[in-house]
Specification:
The protein has 490 residues and is of the alpha+beta class. It is built from 13 helices and 17 strands. It has a six-stranded antiparallel beta sheet with strand order 1-2-3-4-6-5, with helices on one face. It has a three-stranded antiparallel beta sheet with strand order 7-9-10. The chain has a two-stranded antiparallel sheet with strand order 8-11. Strand 1 (7-8) and strand 2 (12-20) form a beta hairpin.
Length: 490
């Protein structure tokens, strides 16, 4: 009996059931040592095939436990109860499945559906590279987890998965296992040559159902569904959704090709086509105003992350026309200059070209400024001022002398002051020409001041003169002024 409080594997304490299916039951549990919440899935197999199903369940759980990817649920542990019932311990996810989202809302837009499928294909590619065929890809097994980065899917339920060899063939005889509405034609027929392209058919059914709101093949009788899947062609998606771009319709019908060779080569190739549609910004409901989708994918742990970048969206081309050049498909990005370059040597050696060092942009202007400053200093040091005078760019020596005669004091130049009694204007004759004598000099009578008294009376020094003496001195006639000869300047 499985009940709350049961310790599974000596370290997982069951709390409550959180899921029930036709072949399995899922319980919420807690790791007793780490106090970490986990999910424990028990296989509910009965009848003659129970032992074979239990063996296959454990083998595929072992394969899935070695897989680490952002878009694939982590398998942490597996084992068998004392009563022989196998179990699988997985990470506990918070959110809802894509099927629950269809039922409870909010509605899934066309753009969001393509984003979810692109990330699911990224995880599915990692599953296939690990040698696992899922065989039950459907909305119930695409779990939508929400965190700080947004909503992203996790691929669940490896209970009916199957291993295949390097040639793409199943390791055991094929059998009809899975959900009939999402089975590929070769899976519905129980063929042995089922390869990873069978899971791509299931992804095509998920897209068809998400866009059209109905399944391409459906019936109340599972047997009728299997016959329709194996023999009939689905109704064209364009008849149900004529507003969808032709690229989206072509993507879905390529995945629903009856023959595996008509589908995409692998999950990664199908994912690249989905991303190319998103990057071109096709006219889809829910398309953001500006977005570019990039998926970093690798086989290592923690890869497959989807990242949205703000950028201009290329408008869709008119009907009947292709995208303008240059257009580089997302699957073939341009190789950067820093990439490893092949040398062509037979030994297969590679050389990594070193990127050129970046030069500082301020070095050139700084050097030019220093050169100009040094040139200007040398120019003024070696007779640069006289060169400017000869070019007429600055006043010459004569102009500076005139400026000093007008009353301005010029450093380094003597100031000549005229006597106060000299005439204001003195005509200046032009210089004599060659061979002609200068005109005779003319004299100008300039009155000279009276001579001072030769002897001053000692008694009168420092005393004020009496009034009569002043009157007598005033009455006496002034001596006749002397005349001084002054040569006029030429």
């Amino acid at each position: 009996m499985i009940e709350a409080g049961t310790i599974v594997g000596h370290k997982y304490r069951l709390e409550e059931p959180i899921g029930q299916g036709g072949m399995a039951t899922i319980w919420r549990a807690v790791h007793t040592t780490l106090d970490r919440p986990v999910a424990v899935k028990f296989l509910e197999a009965v009848g003659t095939s129970a032992q074979e199903l239990a063996k296959r369940f454990l083998n595929e759980a072992k394969l899935a436990a070695g897989l680490r990817h952002r878009h694939v649920v982590d398998i942490l542990d597996f084992g068998v109860l004392d009563g022989g019932q196998p179990y699988m311990v997985m990470e506990l996810l918070e959110g809802m499945s894509l099927a629950d989202r269809y039922e409870e809302g909010p509605p899934v837009s066309d753009w969001e559906l393509l984003e979810i499928v692109a990330m699911t294909l990224s995880g599915l590619a990692a599953v296939h590279e690990a040698g696992i065929l899922h065989r039950d890809v459907k909305p119930e097994n695409i779990f939508l987890v929400e965190d700080a980065d947004g909503i992203y899917p996790k691929l669940l339920d490896f209970g009916v998965s199957k291993g295949f060899d390097m040639g793409g063939k199943l390791t055991r005889t094929g059998s009809v296992v899975g959900t009939p509405q999402y089975m590929s034609p070769e899976q519905a027929r129980g063929k042995r040559d089922v390869d990873p392209r069978s899971d791509l058919w299931s992804v095509g059914v998920v897209l068809y159902e998400g866009f059209a709101g109905e399944l391409p093949f459906d019936s109340e009788n599972p047997g009728d569904v299997l016959i329709s899947v194996a023999t009939e062609v689905p109704q064209p998606l364009s008849a149900l959704r004529p507003d969808l771009p032709q690229s989206v319709i072509g993507l879905v019908h390529k995945a629903l090709s009856k023959k595996p060779e008509g589908r995409h080569d692998d999950a990664r190739a199908m994912r690249d086509e989905v991303l190319a549609i998103l990057e071109r910004g096709e006219a889809l409901s829910g398309r953001p105003d500006s977005a570019l989708i990039r998926v970093a994918y690798n086989t290592g742990a923690g890869t497959g992350k989807l990242k949205a970048l703000t950028a201009s969206v290329t408008p869709p081309p008119p009907p009947g026309q292709s995208l303008p050049d240059p257009f580089v498909p997302l699957g073939a990005p341009p190789v950067p200059k820093e990439a490893v370059a092949y040398t062509g040597e037979p030994s297969g050696s590679f050389s990594v070209p070193q990127p050129e060092p970046r030069k500082a942009r301020w070095v050139g202007p700084l050097v030019a400024t220093l050169v100009l400053a040094a040139g200007a200093g040398a120019f003024f040091a070696f007779d640069g001022m006289r060169a400017l005078e000869r070019a007429g760019l600055v006043p010459g020596e004569s102009a500076r002398a005139d400026s000093g005669a007008a009353g301005d004091v010029v450093p380094g130049q003597a100031v000549v002051a005229l006597e106060p009694d000299a005439p204001d204007e003195i005509p200046i004759e032009p210089p004599p020409s060659d061979g002609v004598d200068a005109p005779p000099a003319e004299t100008v009578d300039v009155p000279s001041p009276p001579d001072p008294p030769e002897v001053a009376e000692e008694a009168s020094l420092g005393a004020e003169p009496e009034a009569p003496a002043i009157e007598e001195a005033a009455a006496e006639p002034a001596p006749e002024p002397r005349r001084r000869r002054r040569r006029r300047r030429r």
